[in-house]
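Weekly sync, protein design subgroup
Attendees: M.S., D.O., the rotation student, P.L. (late)

Item 1: inverse folding check
M.S. brought a backbone from last month's batch and wanted to see whether the design step gives back something sensible before we order anything. D.O. pointed out we never logged the input encoding, so this time it goes straight into the notes. Structure tokens as presented (166 positions):
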């Protein structure tokens, strides 16, 4: 499994149910990484998407505790056990965890790759994920050149799960 996220320098990911910033290159990066894949998200993340609609040309899986939740174009699961059972139907390399914070934090350690866009700015975030740089299970294997857009400096990183040699 893979995870894709954009964070500020404090590992903030959102405020009031919305992204902290909209960077054209980050959106392009997100689309390139997720197109044709299985995207896993919480209900609030789905509702924060444009018009609250599932992402096109992807298999959308939504984890929600709301038993009555239904949405056309979405596979709905209600707990982690049901989610993992559903994910068994797909190749692990095709699964992308896309948010929100509780889904990221719950599934991070199950992922092999993390695609992290780091924005070198502190926003007034109210939603955070765990600091991947402090997670001993992952290491950076690639980073882009630093970029700037809308006065914000940012960089793409790829983390991979450390393997234990036997």
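Designed sequence read out in the meeting:
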């Amino acid at each position: 499994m893979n995870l894709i996220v954009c964070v500020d320098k404090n590992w903030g990911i959102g405020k009031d149910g919305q992204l902290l910033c909209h960077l054209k290159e980050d959106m392009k990066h997100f689309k390139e990484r997720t197109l044709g894949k299985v995207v896993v998200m919480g209900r609030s993340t789905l509702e924060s998407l444009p018009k609250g609609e599932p992402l096109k040309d992807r298999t959308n899986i939504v984890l929600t505790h709301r038993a009555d939740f239904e949405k056309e174009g979405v596979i709905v699961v209600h707990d982690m056990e049901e989610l993992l059972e559903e994910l068994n139907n797909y190749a692990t390399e095709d699964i992308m965890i896309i948010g929100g914070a509780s889904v990221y934090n719950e599934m991070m350690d199950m992922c092999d790759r993390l695609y992290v866009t780091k924005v070198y700015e502190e926003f007034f975030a109210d939603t955070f994920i765990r600091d991947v740089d402090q997670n001993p299970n992952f290491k950076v294997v690639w980073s882009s050149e630093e970029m700037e857009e809308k006065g914000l400096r940012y960089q793409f990183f790829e983390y991979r799960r450390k393997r234990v040699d036997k």
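Discussion: The two ends are 23 Å apart (CA to CA). Residues 4 and 33 are 8 Å apart (CA to CA).
Action: P.L. to compare against the previous round before Friday.
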